[in-house]
Amino acid sequence: MEEPTALILMLKNAETGMIEGELAEITLEEDILPIERIWAEKSPDGTVSIHLRLIASLAGKDFTDEEYEDILDCYETDVFDELAEVSEAEGFPDPAWDLVFALGEGESDASAIEGKLDKILAKHKQELDGVYEILELTW
C-alpha cells in the first residue's frame, strides 16, 4: 500500500462550469496514480456528485491498438455497480473509465468521500491486475 495522499476536491457549478470553491480536503490510502482527473459538481437542485476518470496505464505504458481494445473488452465495469455509474471514456489515448457517484445525506464530509474513493481505487486496481494477467501484460 502506498503512503496516504492528500487532495483538494474542488466544487464545480454544473450549469456554469465555474469552480465555486473547495468541497473537501481528502486523504486517500489507495494509490492515486489511476486518477486522471477528479472534481465535485453541484447541480441546480443542490445535489453534489463526484466525477473521476480512472486510467489503465499506471506507469505511463503505451498500448498497441489491439491491447487498448482488449483491455476495454476484459475490464468488467460491473465491479462498481454498488459504488458508481461507469462509462468508457471516449477519445482518450489510454483505456479509461469515467465514474460518477452522488453524495447522499451526510456523505459530503471528507471521511465519507475518502472511504468511497478508496473502495473505488482498490476495485480498479484489482480489476486491472486481473486484466493485465489475462492479457499477459506487464506494468
How would you describe this structure to a colleague?
Helix 1 (65-74) packs across helix 2. This protein has a six-stranded mixed beta sheet with strand order 2-1-3-4-6-5, covered by helices on one side. It is globular. It is an alpha+beta fold and 139 residues long. It has helices spanning 65-74, 110-135; strands at residues 5-13, 19-28, 35-42, 48-55, 85-88, 96-102. It has two helices and six strands. The longest helix has 26 residues, at 110-135. The chain has one domain (5-135).
Q: Note the overall shape.
A: globular
Query: How far is the first residue's CA from the last residue's CA?
Result: 16 Å
Total strand count, please?
6
Helicity, as a percent range:
25-40%
Radius of gyration: 15 Å
Beta-strand percent range: 25-35%
Low-confidence stretches: none
* H and E order: EEEEHEEH
Largest sheet: number of strands, sense, barrel closure: 6 strands, mixed
The helix/strand class is alpha+beta
Biggest β-sheet: strands ordered side by side in the sheet: 2-1-3-4-6-5
Please, how many helices?
2
**Averaging pLDDT over every residue, what do you get?**
91
